[in-house]
Amino acid sequence: MRGLIPKSDIKMIILKNNIEKLSKNLSELNEVKGRSLWHDARVRFFKNKAAVISVILLSAILIFSFIGPIFSQWTNEEIDWGVLGDISTLGYPSIDSGHYFGTDELGRDLYSRVIQGTKISLMVGFVGALIAVFVGTLYGSIAGYFGGRIDSIMMRLVDILMSIPYMFVLILLLVIFGRSIFMLFIGIGLISWLDMARIVRGQTLSIRKKEFIEAAIATGVGNFTIIIRHIIPNLLGVVAVYATLLVPGMILAESFISFLGLGVQEPNTSWGALISEGAGTMRYGTIWQLLFPLFFFVVSLFSFYFIGDGLRDALDPKDI
Amino acid sequence: MFKFILKRISIAIPTILILIVFSFLLMHSAPGGPFTSERPLPDEVLKNINAKYGLDKPMYVQMFNYVWGIVTNFDFGPSFRYKDRSVNDIIAQGFPVTLKYGSWAFIFAVSFGISLGIIAAIRQNTIIDYIAVGFSISAQVLPNFVMAPILVLIFTLYLGWLPGGGWEGGQIQFVIMPVIALSTSYMASIARLTRSSMLEVLNSNFIRTAKAKGLSKIKIILFHALKPTLLPVISYLGPAFVGMITGSVVIDMYFSTGGIGLHFVRGALNRDYSTIMGITILIGCLTVTFNLLVDILYAWVDPKIRY
């Protein structure tokens, strides 16, 4: 019995007025509101300070990328001819000139460029993770559910794909089919699901043996209905955790490619491209061109990792 | 053991073949031939060039020749961009450089990562532990392309201690920053893995027995705890190796070290298909071989593993 009551509840019961409340509830036969698994997880998540701060920071960055353009006085493509040629002394960050983050090497407003880069980087991160979640979950749960030969063939394929140096193949893809954000999504999506598929398959293997699946099979539910209605909902916790950890991975991959100049194309930009530009020009005394994009990059990645850790602790997939 | 190794090799070889065939097909599906340019060549010239490079033969013959050349001679064919050089020349030029700082980075990451992790685990919840954990968390968001500019900013621009790029035959001052930039995030991951694994091992029963026997702390850690601690670290070596090879592209670009990554990106920028294919396949072979070695090492350290 003791294991069924969470520690925090025991503490609450011990408090005196809670005992009174409890007795009152019992005597009046009030209905006790149940707490779902997700509610418990939410409570645990919000107790994790690092994760909560990360959620706030990340939301701030997200909101900034949407309402930031309202305050900008320059668009991301406009060139400020007044500072061009003498960026290191005139292009520094200032409120007066309207370049809050300074300008880049071509006299473009860095504030607008950072906003645009933030949008694209976050989009790549989320879309990449979304593809991985869809494909990986479906693939992994099918392999795990059917087991046997289907499983070993499907997983062998994952093993083979995993041992390919994917960044090189991705760049090969980008070169051959032209560099565009769409191609980048396809390329990143092609590889990102592998880890997810492995994790999901492992979980499915253990869920498959549970009684409710047996019951579903006994009542004649079709295989795919079982996977979609019974197995996938039970995987959501694990999937949520790894999806959060996938987003920074996707952002890193995109930034890596953009840093090499093989990713997004001008006038579009991303954190990796901005960091690359800033890193290339910092020796001319324009350090802000590196620091502003770097700040957004580092803060967001940190936040994603901490949220992922917080979610993992809250949902505790180790227990499953 | 022999059977196990044979089984792993039987997976490794198809992997490499699939990679070669896949990149070959990719190259063929590219729009336009390698010699289509803005100023179209006369038909006769194009025909002759195609004949010289064997592009006039049917596709399966070309594919067979390509695969056969790699398997028998490790010959990746001519570069489509530099008429006087073959892909092998390019690789021979760049690979030693990458190998040099890459292997230093790998050794650096593994040795420092493991030591840091062990020290942090032994001194759990002391200031050393907090510093180690703090370092490994912050290094996670400092991939090589972020570390490289930061290092140059500090050591070249402000302190002026190290040159900001170049190779000069691999003198020590040119190697330091590439090695640090390449290894930091992997060192951090290895330290984190070692720390948590060591903590788990130190709490297990056989360590308590060793303590009860009165063994000294150093003996316990070196002879009893170290081997099981290293198991998860060994399985991380494969991904770390791949990551470092990939990261060498950034290092080559940023520090102008002239390694294989530089040729890869150059090839990617001027659509030198045969070069980027050659490098991709070479890296693929290296990766697969390295993973094979790691698997064998793993099975040797932990006899329970058989799959």
Structural class estimated from helices and strands of chain A = mainly alpha
Q: What's the end-to-end separation of chain B, in Å?
A: 11 Å
Biggest beta-sheet profile of chain B: none
The sequence of SSEs of chain A as H and E is HHHHHHHHHHHHH
Would you count the extended β strands of chain B for me? 0
* Secondary structure tally, helices of chain A: 13
Query: Which protein chains are joined by the largest interface, and how many residues does each one contribute?
Result: A-B, 39 and 48 residues
> How much β-strand is present in the residues of chain B?
under 5%
Structural Rg of chain B: 24 Å
Q: What is the chain-wise order of helices and strands of chain B?
A: HHHHHHHHHHH
Short description:
The complex is a heterodimer of chains A (320) and B (307). Chain A is mostly helical and 320 residues long. Chain A contains 13 helices and no strands.
Describe the protein.
The complex is a heterodimer of chains A (320) and B (307). With 320 residues, chain A is mainly α. Helix content of chain A is 73%, strand content 0%. The mean pLDDT of chain A is 81. Chain B contains eleven helices and no strands. The radius of gyration of chain B is 24 Å and the shape is flat. In chain B, helix 4 runs antiparallel to helix 9 (217-255), helix 4 (87-122) runs parallel beside helix 11 (273-301) and helix 9 (217-255) packs parallel to helix 10. Chain B is mainly alpha-helical and 307 residues long. The chains are: A mainly alpha (320), B mainly alpha (307). The A-B interface holds A 156, 159-160, 163-165, 167-169, 171-177, 248, 252, 255-256, 259-262, 272, 275-276, 278-279, 282-283, 287, 290, 294, 297-298, 301-302, 305 and B 11-12, 14-15, 18-19, 22-23, 26-27, 29-30, 137, 140-143, 145-146, 148-149, 152-153, 156-157, 164, 242, 245-246, 249-250, 253-254, 264-265, 268-269, 271, 273, 276-277, 279-280, 283-284, 287-288, 291.
